[in-house]
């Protein structure tokens, strides 16, 4: 099992329930592909460095998890088509 960190930016223009549901859906994707969430992180609203889709703010969420090497590619392919996700990045955690 490898350790990974997922950085997720969710649109600030959605309701709190929709934002929470989006993050929950990402957590479910991680567990569906054999991952174990070690730190669910928190979500906080921050100003973006540059506008994305005419938005200047977004909710940042950092999720740490452990998974097999093939899992991040599967998770990324599912996150890529989510409407409320502005940006995401999965990196291998090299603690």
UniProtKB/TrEMBL annotation:
Q: Which GO terms describe its cellular component?
A: cytoplasm; ribonucleoprotein complex; ribosome
Q: Which GO terms describe its biological process?
A: translation
* InterPro entries referenced in this protein's UniProt entry, alphabetically: Ribosomal_bS6, Ribosomal_bS6_sf, Ribosomal_S6_plastid/chlpt, Transl_elong_EF1B/ribsomal_bS6
Recite the UniProt keywords alphabetically.
Ribonucleoprotein, Ribosomal protein, RNA-binding, rRNA-binding
Q: Cross-referenced Pfam families, in alphabetical order? A: Ribosomal_S6 (PF01250)
An MF annotation (GO) of this entry: small ribosomal subunit rRNA binding
Give the similarity note. Answer: Belongs to the bacterial ribosomal protein bS6 family.
Function, as annotated, reads: Binds together with bS18 to 16S ribosomal RNA.
Q: What is this protein called?
A: Small ribosomal subunit protein bS6
> What organism, scientifically named, is this protein from?
Lachnospira eligens
